[in-house]
Amino acid sequence: MSNFTPTERTKIRRKPDRGSYDRELIYSILDEAFVCHLGFVVDGQPYVVPTNYVRVGDRLFLHGSIASRLMKTLASGAPFCLSVTLLDGIVFAPTAVGHSVNYRSVVVMGKAESIEGQAAKLAAMRDFVEYVNRGRWATVRPPSEQELKGTMVLAVPLVEASAKVRTGFAVDDGEAYVSPAWTGVLPMKWAPQAPVPDPRGNPAIPVPANILDYSRPQ
Asked: What is the pLDDT of residues 121-178, one digit of tens each?
C-alpha cells in the first residue's frame, strides 16, 4: 500500500516526527475507531458533529437522514475535515506541564459524493452494520424501501489524509525527576462490558458469540 502524499492541508507541522502518511497505519486507525468528528461551515458558522462511518477500500462511507444539515451540506460538495482519535494512555510526568497522552489519530480532508441507487445504498448500509458487528447483517431485518429513501449515503474518496501518533513516557529533562511524584503511563483501552438484554426482546435468544467476544476492529 502506497503512502498518502502530504498536502498543505495535511502536512504535520507541530511535532512532525509523530506524523505519518503511511496508508496501512491510517487505515488501521480508521478501522479500529468507531466515531469520527466532522468539521464543516454553513453560512460562516463552523460546526463539528460526531457520527459513525465505515471504510470500504479507499473510501469512507457516511450516512444520515436526508433532512440532516450535515448530510445536505456535505452532499453539496462543501469541503470538510474528518478526524478520529484513539486514546492509548495517560502520561504522568514529573512536572505539571509535562503531562500528556499517548494516542493514535487521523485527519482526513475531502469532499463527499452522493451514493445513488437502491442497490448501492443497500450495500453501503450492509457495510455500516457489519462495521459495527461482523455477522450482524444476517440476523436483522434489512432496511425497507421507505427507510432507504429517507437515508442519504455519502462516499468520501481517501485522497488527503495523515496520522499522528504519540508513544512512550514523559519528555521532561532529567533534572525534573527529582520530583516526588510518580511518573509513568496509565494505559487506556476501550473495552465492552457485559451485554444488557432489551426487555422487549426474546429472552430465549442467547447473546451471540460475536457480541460476547466483541472487539475492535471488526
From this structure: 999 999 999 999 999 999 999 999 999 999 999 999 999 999 999 999 999 998 999 9
Mean pLDDT to the nearest integer, 66-82: 95
The three cell numbers of residue 129 are 452494520
Q: What's the confidence (pLDDT) of residue 1?
A: 65
Cell of 82: 474528518
C-alpha cell at 125: 448500509
R_g of the chain, CA atoms, integer Å: 21
Nearest in space to 81 (alpha carbons), one of 115, 101, 106, 64: 106
User: 139 phi and psi, to 5 degrees?
Assistant: -105, -5
Percent of the chain with pLDDT over 90: 95
pTM check: above 0.85: yes
Question: Can you tell me the distance from the alpha carbon of 82 to that of 75, in angstroms, rounded to the nearest whole number?
Answer: 15
Q: Backbone dihedral region of 80: left (phi > 0), alpha (psi from -120 to 50 degrees) or beta?
A: beta
**Nearest Cα residue to 72 out of 112, 123, 117:** 112
Residue 70 makes CB contacts below 8 A (sequence gap 6+) with 38, 40, 47, 49, 51, 64
CA distances from 193 to 15, 69, 186, 205, 215 (A): 36, 34, 20, 19, 11
Helix (H) or strand (E) holding 135: none
Per-residue CA distances from 75 to 45, 78, 161, 184 (Å): 18, 7, 20, 46
Phi and psi at residue 115, in whole multiples of 5°?
A: -95, 120
Q: What whole-number distance in Å separates Cα of residue 63 and Cα of residue 68?
A: 10
